[in-house]
């Protein structure tokens, strides 16, 4: 524990800070040390260092420091070595033969190294590249208990007191949610116990899934009632939670709870506590989907009332083609800081150090037609797979294996970019058939060999004759290796990045944005009522921003399965693919695959990429196997609890098959 704390401090100091982030990182880490003990069980509900805690609530200034401690446990999503949702998904793959990054922990999850003796990404106790969510909950409880006491923090006005308590309630709900989606039925820590509490109270047990969900939803409701509508003091408070965030995260919780993993899952019909209490409700409930849909619509209506809207790229001084304008709207929905679509952006644990590491590791910032830039470049090690590239639609808005007008049977077939292709592919250059005739999100989100990559510092100042990528073996050189599959995460790199000075633009991690909420609503409503009008409406809003026809037009006119969108099952497939494409590289897909119970299919099989060390296009564009993945069903759908914790607390039961 001490090592992790020191490591975070070092990374914080080396990385710098950003707008609205100083308090949430520096003060949070400073406060983290005295209030947390390394010797206690992850589920210890008895606070230690009582004298230190008492001193933390003598004044408004000291109490606010403690609030920042509660924020300091937020997940480190901008570091792929911590971000399970990204790194363990089928969107990307990491290879590190030179061992420039850690070769253990989260990076080993997709390689099948999860275990119960020392679990990877242990969200309960915070080991092996995870945050200790139960410590976070305990500190939130300490804060709520003390700030709720009117005799403490006497210089705190009532409005601020209520807001701060609501923030802690939101964070407490979120940390429980982090645990719930990984472990399922978890112990609920509603309040901390006194030091002299009897041992039978301290040894908490797991609670049934429905009880956990209702508890977390109740916390979000309490928080939403007192949280501010918007952040007004943007200079110091960006990243703190609002009512929109609370309503949206509650909606996400309820969609997760209504999903197949937790809603009538027969795999866990006999999963019980030691006293015989069932932990999963084996009966499927369509009502849960309707409840989730209602929560999504409430969140959407409120967000839109606060002028949260799908991001569109403003007209620049130098004219751009409509092709590039559409791509910039797509790219910047993730990486343009504090854009109009962002509902909740993480800034705690998201300073320049983390953020630049994410961008340098994931987004190709070299190998362009600029030799000097290539010489000084960093080393991206994580990149999209060919499977991810195949998931994007054709230019007609349907999957490549469904388009009746375009042939993608040979994705490696060589073609030369034409003048008409010039905003997507370098004119006159040879690349693979896979890179032609694709939807705008393909070109907005992926960097690939001979692909165009428009940036703010375009040498032509427009998207004519702008940056384009060379990504074949000798063109790049051993000092700047290509991501293992040959693709780059263009979407993750802020468009103001400076090649020459290697200057990164920090942006908040999009934990929740409006397009995510739209798709959650469409999914829940489709499951509850079938493909009614609103299902199409909210999917089509996202497709319109992406420059695509409506679902109805695309499937009716271009798909070999023209009526697919008219059934619940067909729309389910369409919505799930929309989530994969629209939210790619934002850490959602892995958790989606778990809750949908499709991980057994999607996370098994070969990871493939191009033959990146070859120089000629006919050799480079050969699909090769990088790794063969194995996902054990049903074991891997829930995280293992560490064996030692089961020995310490004999009321706990292990997740099945671990």
TrEMBL record:
<keyword id="KW-0472">Membrane</keyword>
<keyword id="KW-0732">Signal</keyword>
<comment type="similarity">
    <text>Belongs to the SusD family.</text>
</comment>
<dbReference type="GO" id="GO:0009279">
    <property type="term" value="C:cell outer membrane"/>
</dbReference>
<protein>
    <submittedName>
        <fullName>Putative outer membrane starch-binding protein</fullName>
    </submittedName>
</protein>
<dbReference type="InterPro" id="IPR012944">
    <property type="entry name" value="SusD_RagB_dom"/>
</dbReference>
<dbReference type="InterPro" id="IPR011990">
    <property type="entry name" value="TPR-like_helical_dom_sf"/>
</dbReference>
<dbReference type="Pfam" id="PF14322">
    <property type="entry name" value="SusD-like_3"/>
</dbReference>
<feature type="domain" description="SusD-like N-terminal">
    <location>
        <begin position="42"/>
        <end position="253"/>
    </location>
</feature>
<dbReference type="InterPro" id="IPR033985">
    <property type="entry name" value="SusD-like_N"/>
</dbReference>
<dbReference type="Pfam" id="PF07980">
    <property type="entry name" value="SusD_RagB"/>
</dbReference>
<keyword id="KW-0998">Cell outer membrane</keyword>
<feature type="domain" description="RagB/SusD">
    <location>
        <begin position="341"/>
        <end position="658"/>
    </location>
</feature>
